[in-house]
Amino acid sequence: MTIDAPHPAGHVCLSFDFDGPSLWLMRKMTGATAMSRGEFGAVAVPRILRLLERRGLPSTFFIPGHTIETYPDVCRMVVDAGCEIGLHGYAHELNSTQSADEERAALDRSIELVGDLWGRPPVGYRSPAGDLTNQTIELLVERGVQYDSSLMGHDHRPYRVRAGDEFPTDGPPRWGNETDLIELPWSWTNDDYPYLEFVAFRRMIMPGLARPDDMFDNFGGDLTWMVREVVAGVLTLVFHPQVIGRGHRLLAFERFLDAATDLGVRFDTMADVADGVARGLAFGVE
User: Fold this and answer.
1) Structural domain boundaries of the chain?
2) Could you tell me whether strands 266-267 and 234-239 are parallel, antiparallel, or unpaired per DSSP bridges?
């Protein structure tokens, strides 16, 4: 829905990274147990869509091309529910490990798959694992992608992405030039994965498994501060179906959504916020 004017109390963007098995493929964790964790994402998506439908809330799903090919029927459910579909790599590749040709090929393949699924060219991108590089930025600009959601340079104000930043060790940064690419910033602090997901790597453990109410208390604190201190701020929340989609977490999610609604914020797709920014609307004024 087009935003005619910024909502003074602020905007919340609910986004979901439907990684499926690609998340574990990227980590070369291809055993049956690891892959089944990705499979659970397909179980969780219908639950999430029902939750959002009951409240009439818009959302944005970032879906790797690999997931679209693996779960076409579930991805079609997301489209039929009226959700925005954004780019999230082909197989959750880490951009910093790819050559320009490799990244270009993965991006173009995913653009085609998302476009065929959504019925229109994708306008938004989130880099897998938040791994955005100068090379990625240049490719997104070349392909006319309108917005990115991979950077953390602000918490509640969209901004223009620079291309060509340099960071020498013997002096201050050399900032690149602003591009037409709009940034809708995110942060690990507003992402369900580090709070809730347990992962045992060979050399480390991501403990996860926190109480979801503690996570949502943090989310709610950022939201409450934004409503009080910022005019028309934007809060981007990141969820993963394979993480948030279990019963006790969904119940906590419902409680959070009720509390957010009571604060008077507006829920929007990321595409609609980016469109407002492109039209010159002022978001995130402190």
Assistant:
1) 11-164+174-278
2) unpaired
In the predicted structure, residue 1 carries a pLDDT above the cut 90: no
Q: 123 and 274 in contact (C-beta within 8 Å)?
A: yes
Average pLDDT over the chain, rounded to an integer? 97
Length of the chain in residues, anyone? 286
Single-letter amino acid, residue 195: Y
Strand 159-163 versus strand 177-183 pairing type: antiparallel
The stretch 43-70 carries a mean pLDDT of 98
State pTM to two decimals.
0.97
Q: Residue 279 pLDDT more than 90? A: yes
> In what helix (H) or strand (E) does residue 198 lie, and over which residues does it extend?
none
Rounded Cα distance, 114 and 244, in Å: 23
Q: Is residue 131 a contact partner of residue 27, using CB atoms and an 8 Å limit?
A: no
Fold of 11-164+174-278: TIM Barrel (3.20.20)
